[in-house]
């Protein structure tokens, strides 16, 4: 039976804001997401008996239907009607519960693997629609690269592409649940995100900086509505950001609802030394590069 391997890339949020709420309580977001070279690797082997199995190199990762990769495989079979099962092996390098979409990346890679193994029976758009039923970040993790998203964060649009640079992605052992992060913001803004309580920042400055290919301006244009309230509660993430700034980052920002932090660097030496300093403090840190389209136009890294 056919075996396929795909990379599931981590993502950072260069911009993350809230523009309102729906009548049923969902937060409407505006975000610019970027794939980075930190990735998990998913290997999928079809099996004829219809069973799905999952194994992972990291202890504590669920291997049953609690894992988003298994949910993705079951959703793919239900959508397409294929009878195959699969053995799924995840080589995980993206930290768990770090806000870098590790679970969504694994689900996206699983969908891409299954689709290829079954003869590409779904288009990328169809895979993204299926992925959106699993989680807001899954469609982006399928297409990768740089994208603007609105709605619940799953409606993707083209955006200026990020030029090559060095990105340090780091996190400590702190956890930040997404519901907790939103609840914290709701407490600040009264649960409303309109001009009476909050004015969203917009992405114009970031788009302009990206179009000019100016890394320094891009770093200055990053924004995350969650950062100020969450960093006031998570001292490790705050320390990591400070370390990046002291290490020469052009800009450092919390990604998603936390607790991961990324720093943008102009040179490899500063990025590597900063990552080393963060690791010496006992935290995870990796020097990354922006990557392009995860579907097949990934920028060659050197």
Kindly describe this structure.
The strands form two sheets. Strands 1, 2, 3, 4, 5, 6 and 8 form a seven-stranded mixed beta sheet that branches. β3, α1 and β4 form a beta-alpha-beta unit. The chain has ten helices and eleven strands. With 302 residues, the protein is α+β, with helices and mostly antiparallel strands. It is globular and about 55 Å long. The two termini are 34 Å apart. The chain is 34% helix and 27% strand.
What is the topology?
Layout: E1 3-21, E2 27-47, E3 52-56, H1 68-80, E4 85-91, H2 102-117, H3 124-132, H4 138-143, E5 146-150, E6 155-157, E7 166-171, H5 178-189, H6 204-212, H7 215-221, E8 223-224, H8 227-231, H9 235-246, E9 251-254, E10 261-265, H10 268-280, E11 284-288
Parallel strand pairs: 1-8, 3-4
Antiparallel strand pairs: 1-2, 2-4, 2-5, 5-6, 7-10, 7-11, 9-10
Helix pairs in contact: 1-2, 6-7, 9-10
Class inferred from helices and paired strands = alpha+beta
- The total of beta strands comes to 11
How would you characterize the largest beta sheet? 7 strands, mixed
Helix content: 25-40%
Task: Name the average pLDDT.
Answer: 91
Poorly predicted regions: 295-302
CA radius of gyration: 19 Å
* Beta-strand fraction estimate: 25-35%
Q: How far do the termini sit from each other?
A: 34 Å
Number of helices: 10
């Amino acid at each position: 039976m056919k075996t396929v391997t795909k990379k599931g890339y981590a993502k950072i949020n260069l911009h993350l804001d809230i523009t309102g709420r729906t009548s049923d309580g969902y937060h409407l977001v505006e975000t610019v997401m970027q794939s980075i070279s930190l990735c998990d690797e998913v290997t999928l082997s079809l099996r004829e008996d219809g069973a799905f199995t999952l194994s992972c190199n990291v202890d504590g990762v669920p291997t049953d239907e609690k894992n988003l990769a298994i949910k993705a495989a079951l959703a793919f079979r239900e959508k397409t009607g294929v009878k195959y099962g699969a053995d799924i092996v995840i080589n995980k390098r993206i930290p768990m519960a770090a806000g870098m979409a590790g679970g969504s990346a694994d689900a996206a890679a699983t969908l891409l693997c299954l689709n290829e193994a079954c003869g590409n029976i779904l288009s990328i758009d169809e895979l993204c629609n299926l992925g959106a039923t699993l989680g807001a970040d899954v469609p982006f993790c399928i297409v990768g690269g740089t994208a603007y998203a609105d709605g619940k964060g799953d409606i993707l649009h083209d955006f200026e592409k990020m030029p090559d640079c060095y990105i340090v992605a780091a996190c400590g052992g702190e956890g930040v649940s997404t519901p907790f992060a939103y609840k914290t913001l709701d407490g600040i803004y009264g649960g409303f995100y309109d001009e009476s309580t909050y004015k969203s920042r917009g992405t114009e400055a970031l788009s302009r900086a990206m179009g000019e290919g100016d890394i320094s301006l891009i770093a200055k244009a990053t924004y995350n509505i969650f950062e100020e309230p969450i960093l006031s509660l998570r001292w490790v993430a705050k320390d990591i950001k400070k370390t990046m700034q002291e290490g020469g980052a052009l800009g450092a920002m919390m990604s998603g609802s936390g607790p991961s932090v990324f720093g943008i660097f102009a040179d490899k030496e500063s990025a590597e030394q900063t990552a080393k300093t963060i690791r010496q403090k006992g935290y995870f840190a990796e020097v990354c590069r922006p990557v392009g389209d995860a579907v097949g136009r990934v920028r060659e890294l050197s």
